[in-house]
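Rotation project, supervised by the postdoc (A.L.). Task for the rotation student: set up a whole-complex structure prediction and record inputs and outputs verbatim in this book. Inputs entered:
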Amino acid sequence: MRIVFEKRKSRARGILFAVPALSFMISMLLSGIVLLIAGANPFETFASMASGAFGSSNGFSETLVKTIPLALTGLAVALAFKLRFWNIGAEGQLVLGGIASSWVALFLGPSLPEPLVLPLCIAAGFAAGALWAGIPGLLKTRLSVDETLVTLMLNYVAILFAEYLYYGPWRDPKGYGFPGSAPFIEAAWLPRIFGRAHAGIWFIPVIALLFWVLLRRTRWGFELSIIGASPRAARYQGIAVQRNILLAVLLSGAIAGLAGACEVTGISHRLQQGLNLGYGFTAIIIAWMSQLNPLAIPFVALLMGGILVGGDQVQMMMGLPSAMGTVMQGLILFPMLAGSLFTEYRIRVLSGKAKKSKVACVEGEA
Amino acid sequence: MKKLVLGVLVLAIAFSLAAPLAAQAKKPLKIAFVYIGPPGDMGWTYEQDRGRLAAVQHFGNKIETKYIENVPEGPDAERVIRQYAAAGFDMIFTTSFGYMDPTLAVAKDFPKVIFEHCSGYKTAPNMATYFGRIEEARYLTGIIAGRMTKSNIIGYAAAFPIPEVVRGINGFTLGVKSVNPKAQVRVVWTNTWYDPVKEREAAVALLDSGADIIAQHQDTTEPQKAAQERGKYSIGYDSDMGKFVGDSVLASAVWEWSTYYIDTIQKALDGTWKTHEYWGGLKDNVVKLSSLSPKVPASVVAEVEAAKKKILDGWSIFSGPIKDQSGKVVYAAGQVVPDDKQLSMDWFVEGVVGKVQ
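Outputs recorded:
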């Protein structure tokens, strides 16, 4: 007897609902068990997490604060992933966007007309993200250098560069020696909507919709889809594969850079530690959970933002150790991710005599 | 796509059903503490948490405390502080320098909540600042280090180049120099408060450069352990690190928050709390010298006791003459560095090898 995964030919509507619901219940069950072992009341803990993330306007605004960079970087990596360009570097692109945006705010801002400062900060973040993604993009399309490694390593270059700046030349002379740049002038602040949630949130629907329209309704989007499905087929059709990949990668980096610009102009109002909190890595999970669908990404990002904010409640209100918050986040995500496997594949138990040829095995990403 | 929307909906429904359960009774004074490291760091946060527990023991069910550990300095700190304030906490202690601006930002939005920020310099009508003159205790440990070094090189693993840390290095060095003018104090910056690996590396680098005593300003015991493994002595900080590491720790400059916490929480309970800038010293018992290692000879113990008595009698460790690193007299005999100049101190005294970067 063997147990195999078989690719579903068509996806039943029921499965689409049942799988996430079941995954979520398994998540709750698993975390409940861990909480019980830790000596906490699971119901109370879940309630506390929920009310912390969604239960008050303040908590919800903090969830949105997390959602903005998560959704933008999620969209950024999804765009690159569509073309099978494995951009693991959204974190670094975000950081470089933050650096460029800070540069405009700190050094150009004071001498510019006020209404120009913020748009220029945003544009600088956008451009810097594209530039940073352009390096692996060019290396990949011109020299076939593996992009996974390059994008990953460039994260650390960007993060260390930011540290160099706010520990060194950009350190606030009035900051009593504490690392961090001087605060930005107010003209460089993204307006806040409520709580700390800022206007950067409007970029999410705009970019998600543009992304969707691009893929579904334009010729270029159609070309990209073909490249993603089969680069070889695309080439036979006369599509400029390398050029299209490079363009999409530049755009991907630009969106991640935009996230960085939003972080410094919307939240920290200076360049300081706490810019690279791993949004660019969580973005990868978000993109996969959304199955690279740009319209799903904002919602998954919202859920993820809620989990991050709610996770802190575990120690803030329940008095559990900080590691428990992280464990809970993992336990919630894991079954949700695993669950997506079952919407694509089904399990079949075969008796020993079944012919192997009938069985498609799981390959690569699920 | 649809399954995800549905998944999110399911979550939202589950969360909204569960939310009312989280409401809690609200009679005792609710106090939150925001920590930079874990209480198990055996250093700074360990002492902060001992202060919290002392208050809990003192006030019993009149107060209710919560804490959060490992909160990074930066934008995330503001979220955490804001969440506590919005959740109905009456008093919030934020216990690291880098929480200053986030605390101030939240304090402006929650005028009825009392904020106490440790080690900064900004205040508001509802935000006080508090700290202690740990350099007084460091001066005493400096006397021990100055007497016990053989290589005349003392290593100092320093946290951030901010006035708090610079003051500590200067106070320590003045203590060293008071008994051993030939000794130098070599400074290595880690730019961390709690990073066991980096802080150990800093200590190892100092030992490699010839230091035979290691002092530190971070919150782990790793530099102490590194010295011990090389058969060298060390000077602890934050807590009585000798208890955790052994007799190779000659002495520690120790925080003792219980008195201050009980005092300020009492005022909050009575409704007499007002914003303030608290800066206590040895005589207020907010900073202490730990018990000394048996390796410290009696003659040195006597010297330390004499200096301690002088400080308790009101003598400032920052009394002139004080020279800077270039040998120039910055404060002449008879002068004392005024408090505001101590609070913004950004230069090293003679005998320190290193730069305030």
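Student's summary: The domain at 41-319 of chain A is CATH 1.10.3470 (ABC transporter involved in vitamin B12 uptake, BtuC).
Supervisor addendum: Residues 9 and 205 of chain A are 32 Å apart (CA to CA).
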